[in-house]
Amino acid sequence: MLSFSPLENCGEYLKAYIPTWIVTGAIFAISFIMELTCEPFKRHFVLSDPSISYPFSYHERFNDTNLWLSAVIVPYVVMIWISLLKHLFGGEQNTPKYAHVIHITTLAFFLAMGINGFVTEFLKLRIGKLRPDFLERCGPTIDSSAALIGKVYNETICSKPLGEILFKDGFKSCPSGHSSFAWCGFNFLNLWISGQLHLHSPLDQDIDPIANPSQNSKYHRFHLLQLVNLVPIGCALQISLSRSQDYRHDFIDISLGSFIGFAVSTFIYCQFFRSIFGYHSSETKFSDYQVMNSYNDIPL
């Protein structure tokens, strides 16, 4: 079990990351406030539009609680669990290093989640795209058969039978939040596992694959453990596609949300960890954990 008690200058180490933690918390707070207080753009609509006439699903395949458990809690717990196992088998002398990896993993993961949430919510509010089940949320007081063909209406004709919250949420179809969080969480996990387990690292750091093409088999080689990368991808796809099955989003919403989550998680991971294709893929880009103890920054 990790313990900071034997580590020297732990306070000095943590002090360097306080600004980043403050920024992470601020991003989460701003995103939360935006979701609760900001009104989405109220786009006008046509009652005969089939793209917003789908039924409202009362039982989602992945509701908000399941999303947070699946795309946030599970990936984070898996990363911490693997880190603790590596520490258990790596020796007590590496405690500062593994504590550093866990700290950077936590910071980077939640920073990615915060930025992803902010970008997704901002676009939802500005785009104001109608959900596929919007008309059921709206409950128009005008019968669609009596409405003039092609006439555009606004929200004033809505009786809001499902309540104000679900009605307002009906204007926030694009991008898909479930898709963005699913791809952000699981893609970060995928990159992290690839780096920490050296799934795509060269077998020998001294071999130049260009200068020594005959020894390329010692540089990169396929092994069955690399198939583990398919698991997070499959999980992210399952959550994303379920949003179409529940008539919450169309494929444009899902595609944009997936791209945002993938892009944000990849960008943030690359700011904190070394390339998954390098020999030192399990290393962070910072070695300031050495202030906690005196030893060289060696590969895990």
**Structural class of the helix and strand makeup?**
mainly alpha
Uncertain residue ranges: 1-7, 294-300
Run of helices and strands: HHHHHHHHH
**First-residue to last-residue Cα separation:** 17 Å
Mean pLDDT value: 87
- The value of Rg in angstroms is 24 Å
The biggest beta sheet is recorded as:
none
> Share of helix among residues?
40-55%
Strand content: under 5%
- State the helix count: 9
GO cellular component, one term: membrane
Transmembrane segments: 16-34, 67-89, 101-123, 222-239, 251-270
Domain Phosphatidic acid phosphatase type 2/haloperoxidase: 105-269
GO biological process, one term: phospholipid metabolic process
Can you summarize this structure?
This protein has 300 residues and is mainly α. The protein has helices at residues 10-15, 18-37, 64-90, 95-127, 134-138, 164-169, 177-196, 230-245, 251-272.
Can you put this structure into words, describing what you see?
With 300 residues, this protein is mostly helical. Among the domains are: 74-129 and 172-204 and 218-295, no CATH class; 134-169, no CATH class. Helices cover 52% and strands 0% of the residues. It has helices at residues 10-15, 18-37, 64-90, 95-127, 134-138, 164-169, 177-196, 230-245, 251-272. Residues 1-7 and 294-300 have low confidence and may be disordered. Keywords: Membrane, Transmembrane, Transmembrane helix. The chain crosses the membrane at residues 16-34, 67-89, 101-123, 222-239, 251-270. Belongs to the PA-phosphatase related phosphoesterase family. It is found in: Membrane.
